[in-house]
Specification:
This protein is α/β, with parallel strands linked by helices and about 350 residues long. Helix content is about 30%, strand content about 20%. The protein has a single domain, classed as UDP-N-acetylmuramoyl-L-alanine:D-glutamate ligase. It is built from 10 helices and 15 strands. Strands 7-6-3-10-11-12-13-14-15 form a 9-stranded mixed β-sheet, sandwiched between helices. The radius of gyration is 19 Å and the shape is globular. The chain starts with 12 loop residues before the first strand and ends in a 16-residue tail after the last helix.
Length: about 350
C-alpha cells in the first residue's frame, strides 16, 4: 500500500531565528501544530522496522579524550539501544503500530533486549536468537555539552539475513523503516521485495556508508545527517546551495524524497514539489544520543498517520528536540502527550 503523504503544502509562513546560521534565515518555514496533533489521532497504518538492537554502555565525561589520552569519566550506565530498536521504541511511544525484526545473541545482553522490548509493548516474536555471535553493544561517550561519540560492536546484528525476514512480514506492512546496522544484502532484499509490493521504504543511512544505486532507486525517503549525506554524495553541506546539490544528487539516483537532518538547526526537505528548511525548537541539550533515532521514529509514525511530508518533518524535529533534553537512547524517546 502506497501512502499518499505529499499533499501540496499551502501558504507557509516565513520566519527567522537568531540561533540559526545566517544562510538559513531567509528559508525557514513554520508549520502549524494543530493539524498534526489532530492527524496523529487517526487510524494507524502498520509500520515494519527492521534493524539492530544493542545494549548501550554509556560514560559521561567533561570532555572527549585526545588520541592516546586517558581521562577520568563521571558516570556509567547501561541502557537498551541500537538504531533499529531505538526507532521502533520512538515510534511506539508516539502511537505507532510497530512490528520489529532484529537478531540478538543468546547472552545476558540479549535477554535484557527482550525485556526492554516487552516493557515498551513491542512484540518479540520476530526477534531471532543466535548462539554464533554475541548481542550487539555500543560504547558511547557523552561530554558536558551533550555531544557524543559512539563505537558499535555489531555482533548478532550482522547476522540478520534475508532468511530471517519472512515475505509475509513485508506483505503485512504499510511502510518500512531501515537503517545500516544490519547487512547490506538484507537491506537490498527488503527494498526489492517491498518495491514489488508497492510498499514505501524509508532508509536512515546510519552509520554513514556509500550505497548502490539499486537501493537508492527503490527508496521512498532517505534521511541522512550532514556527515552521512557527504558520504553518500561527496558534497559537504556547508551552505543551502550545498544542501540542494546533495539532495538533487540523491533525487537523480531515484530516491523520491530526501530529508537531511541538521541537528539543532532542524532539517532540509527536498523532492519534486518542495525545497524546505524546517526549524527545530531551541532547547538546552543534555544528551544528543537519541536525536537521530527519535527523528526517524517520529517521522515514520507521522507518515503512517497520513500526515504530509513537510508537517511530518516538523513533528519529527519537535520530537527530536525533546529527546536531547533527556539522557540515553530509548529512555529519551518522548511520549505522544509530550508533543
Amino acid at each position: 500500500m502506497i501512502i499518499s503523504c505529499l499533499r501540496e503544502f499551502q501558504q507557509p509562513l516565513l520566519i527567522t531565528s537568531s540561533f540559526l546560521p545566517v544562510f538559513f534565515d531567509r528559508f525557514i518555514w513554520h508549520l502549524p501544530d494543530e493539524s498534526i496533533t489532530q492527524s496523529m489521532q487517526t487510524p494507524r497504518l502498520k509500520i515494519l522496522v527492521i534493524g539492530s538492537s544493542n545494549t548501550d554502555l554509556v560514560v559521561r565525561t567533561p570532555r572527549f579524550p585526545l588520541a592516546g589520552e586517558t581521562i577520568l569519566g563521571e558516570e556509567f550506565f547501561m541502557t537498551p539501544g541500537g538504531k533499529g530498536a531505538n526507532q521502533a521504541v520512538a515510534a511506539v511511544r508516539l502511537g505507532g503500530d510497530v512490528t520489529f525484526v532484529t537478531k540478538i545473541g543468546k547472552d545476558v545482553f540479549g535477554k535484557s533486549t527482550l525485556t526492554a522490548l516487552e516493557r515498551e509493548g513491542i512484540g518479540t516474536e520476530n526477534v531471532v536468537e543466535t548462539s554464533e555471535h554475541p548481542s550487539g553493544v555500543a560504547v558511547i561517550t557523552v561530554d558536558s555539552k551533550g555531544e557524543n561519540t559512539i563505537v558499535v560492536a555489531s555482533g548478532a546484528n550482522m547476522l540478520l539475513l534475508p532468511g530471517d525476514i519472512s515475505s509475509q512480514l513485508i506483505d503485512a506492512a504499510d511502510i518500512i523503516l531501515l537503517q545500516l546496522e544490519i547487512p547490506l544484502s538484507t537491506i537490498e532484499y527488503v527494498v526489492s521485495v517491498a518495491n514489488t509490493r508497492g510498499t514505501p521504504v524509508v532508509l536512515n543511512p546510519a552509520p554513514a556508508a556509500r550505497l548502490p544505486d539499486m537501493i537508492l532507486k527503490g527508496l521512498f525517503l532517505i534521511t541522512p545527517n550532514e556527515t552521512e549525506v557527504e558520504t553518500l554524495t561527496g558534497i559537504k553541506p556547508a551552505t543551502l546551495a550545498d544542501l540542494k546539490s546533495a539532495a538533487n544528487f540523491l533525487l537523480r539516483k531515484g530516491v523520491k524524497n530526501v530529508i537531511i537532518t541538521l541537528g539543532e538547526r532542524g532539517a532540509f526537505l527536498m523532492n519534486e514539489d518542495h525545497a524546505l528548511l524546517v526549524p527545530s525548537p531551541l532547547v538546552t541539550p543534555v544528551d544528543t544520543t537519541a536525536a537521530g533515532d527519535v527523528f526517524n521514529g517520529a517521522l515514520i509514525t507521522a507518515l503512517a498517520n497520513g500526515i504530509d511530508l513537510p508537517q511530518a518533518c516538523d513533528y519529527a524535529c519537535r520530537a527530536a528536540a525533546i529527546s536531547v533534553t533527556k539522557r540515553g537512547a530509548q529512555t529519551a524517546a518522548p511520549y505522544q502527550n509530550e508533543l
